Amino acid sequence: MTLRLTNSEMSTWRRCERKWYWESYRGLRKREVLPAGTPLAIGSRVHVALAAFYSGGSATDALAESIARDLATFPEHEAQILKDQDLCSAMIEGYLEWLEETGVDADLRVIAAETKLEVPITFGVTLLSKLDARVERHRAGTPTRMALEFKTVGDLTSSLPTLALDTQLLTEHLVEFLHLRERGQEGDRAQGVLYRMLRKVKRTDRAKPPFYSEEEVPHSVEELRNHWRHVVAYAGQIQAARARLDAGETHHSVTPPSPQSSCSWYCPLLGACKLANAGADVEGYLSDHFEVRDPLERYAGIGQVDL
């Protein structure tokens, strides 16, 4: 059986093997998650709007449509959804103004927006990635291929020291590199990732600019080669864990937990984790609060995009 690996799964594996067991191995997701009031919800709405914009559509219309869908599905949470709308609208409107004022997109050619790619990484393993956009930047007459990545952030500086090591950016670049090499276009390989940050603020009089920023994050062939080695190593660990679990070994032995103080706000499975350690009815709790979903559902239709 082929292991279809993502950066998200590898990140979960590194952080907590028990969380990986429940989320990736068993496919558990919390029931009816409110699409509002969280960093993930804000980021998702902004991504939807910008995907529409870089596909030639209207960012504001796309945002309004996503808000309307959620209001129809979760009318009891109208106040929180509308609060998120105010924030996201301010962020998107400001971003479009920033583009106009700075001209940062003037030398960009969009090859494709929101592209899903899957490439073989080693025997029995493929690597998946979802790029916000694939672009070419034309400067001094020399086009440079890059992946465009949007990130909603609390500030514009905290992530800078580790951007070159960011596994999401490395994975996006590696998948793009391997995809082009498979097609005989290695000479056109992407040079890295164009990282666009949007601060999660309404830009009121009390908010201090700047609110938007761009960083070019290049990776050398050697950096990509070493990231490939890391991916292969994680794949081997995950395949071994899956084999042991498939054989009936208890998850307590195969995938022990890694409790941290951030679990209180980061992990939706904290309650289940406490029950599992105590030998209580964790399966009843999971059945009441979680449902089985395909962990790779966001990559549906991946074979349909081949640019």
The ordered H/E elements are EHHEHHHEEEHEEHHHHHE
The averaged pLDDT comes out at: 92
The strand count comes to 8
| Biggest β-sheet strands, sense, barrel | 6 strands, mixed
Domain count: the total is 2
Structural class: alpha/beta
Distance between the amino and carboxyl termini: 27 Å
- Coarse shape: globular
The level of helicity is 40-55%
Rg value: 21 Å
Describe the structure.
This protein has about 300 residues and is an alpha/beta fold. The chain has two domains: about 5-35 and about 105-305, Lambda Exonuclease, Chain A (Alpha-Beta Complex), CATH 3.90.320; about 35-105, no CATH class. Helix content is about 45%, strand content about 20%. It contains eleven helices and eight strands. It has helices spanning about 5-15, 15-25, 40-55, 60-75, 80-100, 165-180, 220-245, 250-255, 265, 270-280, 280-290; strands spanning about 5, 30, 110-120, 125-140, 140-155, 190-200, 210-220, 290. Strands 1, 3, 4, 5, 6 and 7 form a six-stranded mixed beta sheet that branches. The protein has a two-stranded antiparallel sheet with strand order 2-8. The longest helix has 26 residues, at about 220-245. It is globular and about 60 Å long. About 30% of the residues are buried.
